[in-house]
Amino acid sequence: MPYGENDIRKTQLDLSEPPESVLEYARITYGETPETRKQAIEEFRDYIFDQEQCNPHRTDDAFLLKFLRARKFNIPKAHRLLCRYYSFKENNPHLHRDIRPLDLKFIGDDDVLSVPPYRDQHGHRMMIYRVGNWDPNKYGVEELFKASVITLELGILEPRCQIMGGICILDLKGLSLNHTWQVTPAMAMKMLEFVTKSCTMKIEAVHVLHQSWYFDMMYSGVKPFLSQKARDKLFIHGDDMESFHQHIDPKYLPTRYGGSQDDVNFNEWLEWLKTQQFIVDEMRSLGYIIDDADLAIEPENNKNVPPSESGRSVDDDDSSSSDESIYFTDCEDGDQ
Question: What is the CATH classification number for the domain harbouring 48?
């Protein structure tokens, strides 16, 4: 396995230091070493204050490192991503603020979204959508969007995931006209904006399976707004599993896609979330609501385990506040 052992079988985030092979990948790809990391974080923090374009609610090392890794330690690009991240939040508070993640179990009940505990052969996390299982008469596409944002916010807490990124498997078997009606042009553009310009997760590839003409119709409307870089990450396989397996080794896929691994329900992640104080604190700081009465935290998990907590707040007089920041919209467009 080129980038770290794929030995995680439990439904949990790996918050530990990445394996040496992953750190070596980061060093070769964009020159990350302990020394360059420390220097880049300090320069990035100063750059944020000097530019005065956005006011993040935290500027500790661990938080800023997510943005630097997402843009390969290019500080101006990391800063643009930071501004767009907060701008998206301000413009779409209904997608993240005052939402109770534990109330989204119906997504798991219908098996619409899942994140396996195992990774592909390159060490990427995988998000799998089974759109045909979604009943638009029960809940709208916005609920899926909320669950996706939560999943990405959780996943990017993994240092390994920050470096290696993730892939999306879009299984469109059963997609109907009723589904496509839910995805309005405005919603499609909002999703596109989030994925390509505002998301801290590096999306390395999107694999489309079992698509029909409904997808072709939707894609034709979105394609002109995609950069060439984004188009190059999209792979449309239809029912051709052999084509799909050229990208992802079947050893790292669920059995329904010709692999040998078990499926994992979205609700298993929600159950695990309830047991981790650090994860609960992180989600609360982002505006999500998790009631103490819903928690099941064991004593050994009742502690913070962030990698680094140095840094300063933009507003030194209110550095402890978890409220969302003030945003500015003059940052340049994206490069995901």
Answer: 1.10.8.20
Distance CA 258, CA 244 (A): 10
Rounded alpha-carbon distances, angstroms, from residue 46 to 49, 79, 163: 5, 11, 23
Query: pLDDT value at position 36?
Result: 97
Residues 127-139: tens digit of each pLDDT: 999 999 999 999 9
DSSP string of 220-277, one letter each residue: HHHGGGS-HHHHHTEEEEET-HHHHHTTS-GGGSBGGGT-SBPP--HHHHHHHHTT-H
Distance from C-alpha of 155 to C-alpha of 305, rounded to nearest angstrom: 15
pTM (2 d.p.): 0.86
Specify whether the CB–CB gap between 70 and 81 falls below 8 A: yes
44-77 pLDDT per residue, tens: 999 999 998 999 999 999 999 999 999 999 999 9
| Torsion region of 174: left, alpha or beta (phi above 0 gives left; psi -120 to 50 gives alpha) | left
Residue 308 lies in a domain: no
**Alpha-carbon span 97 to 166, nearest angstrom:** 24
Does the structure show a pLDDT above 70 at 335? no
Q: Does any domain span residue 139?
A: yes
| Single residue among 29, 62, 95 that ends a domain in this structure | 95
State the CB neighbour count (10 A cutoff) for residue 211.
20
* Polymer length of the chain: 336
- Pair 66, 130 in one domain: no
pLDDT digits (tens, 9 = 90+) for 76-91: 999 999 999 999 999 9
Using DSSP, state whether 140 is helix, strand or coil.
Answer: coil
Number of folded domains in the chain? 2
Considering 218, 242, 272, which residue would you say is the last residue of a domain?
A: 272
Cα distance between residue 226 and residue 102, in whole Å: 33
- Phi-psi label, residue 309: left if phi above 0, alpha if psi -120 to 50, beta otherwise: alpha
Place of tokens 């050893």: 251
